[in-house]
Amino acid sequence: MIKSKRQEEILNLLDQSNVMKVSDLVKELDVTDMTIRRDLQELEDQNLLIRIHGGARKLDNGSLPFLELSHREKRDINPDAKNEIAKLIAANIHDHETVFLGSGSTIELVYNYLDLNYAKIITNSIYVFDQFKYDDRFELILTGGTYRSKTGSFTGTIANDFMETIYLEKAFIGVNAINDNKVFNANEDEGVIQRIVLNNAREKYLVADSLKFNSLDFYQFYDLDTADYLVTDSKLSPELKEKYSNWVQIIN
């Protein structure tokens, strides 16, 4: 199928469904993941749709829901970049530090690359907790709170109250989308605890693979220029790196 016809079909599918996952478009059109992502970028550049994390939504004047992928679905998106970023995060965690590791399929991988004698790890992610729970090198704290099965994270009053009392040397928080100075995720309850964590950390790290730049999601929970570092992968274009370096120091 030629590109113009394929992109026309993408727009037709969005007209029918309002929101489409990249994985569904790949199956529907029988092309590669990267082909669909390039098509979505070109169509967004023409103001014909809005890219969101994991897919795209129809462009119109109404209010449309954003698509929130589950933790398991996110694991299959851009795995090479996730491991690249996980290595970068691990390289910035040192012995005897008190560190918060947030929820997300990228941060879940950090454990695989840590070479430490001891650190205190605090998390609100059951998946991160499961990675560390049998390793005696780490003092491990799970926040507790209301469990969100979609992402495997704990949120709500109990988690927020606990994190407001904790001083952190470093916090690593995954994001769903970045657009100019604004940082987004898919759920307001997760956004609240993420903001609390970042505000209580001496060094604030936001984590986003290169596919999440110049996109939107449901809830804006932070500003780039309030963070210290933005950790991403080496596929981030020089143009985007220059643009976003205006707000935050980029590690990639």
Describe the model:
By secondary structure, the chain is α/β, with parallel strands linked by helices. The protein has nine helices and 15 strands. α2 packs across α3. The two termini are about 35 Å apart. About 0% of the residues have low confidence. The strands form four sheets. A seven-stranded parallel sheet has the order 6-5-4-9-12-14-15, sandwiched between helices. It has a three-stranded antiparallel sheet with strand order 1-3-2.
* Low-pLDDT residue spans: 61-65
Q: Helical amount among residues, as a percent range?
A: 25-40%
Mean pLDDT: 91
Overall, the morphology is elongated
The string of secondary-structure elements, in order, is HEHHEEHHEEHEEEHEEEHEEEHE
Structural class: alpha/beta
**How far apart are the termini?**
36 Å
- Share in β-strands: 25-35%
Largest sheet: 7 strands, parallel
**For the largest beta sheet, what order do the strands appear in spatially?**
6-5-4-9-12-14-15
Number of strands: 15
Explain the layout of strands and helices.
Blueprint: H1 3-17, E1 19-21, H2 22-29, H3 33-45, E2 49-52, E3 55-58, H4 71-75, H5 79-91, E4 98-101, E5 119-123, H6 126-132, E6 138-142, E7 146-148, E8 153-155, H7 157-163, E9 168-174, E10 177-179, E11 182-185, H8 188-199, E12 201-207, E13 219-223, E14 229-231, H9 238-244, E15 249-251
Parallel strand pairs: 4-5, 4-9, 5-6, 9-12, 12-14, 14-15
Antiparallel strand pairs: 1-3, 2-3, 7-8, 10-11, 11-13
Helix pairs in contact: 2-3
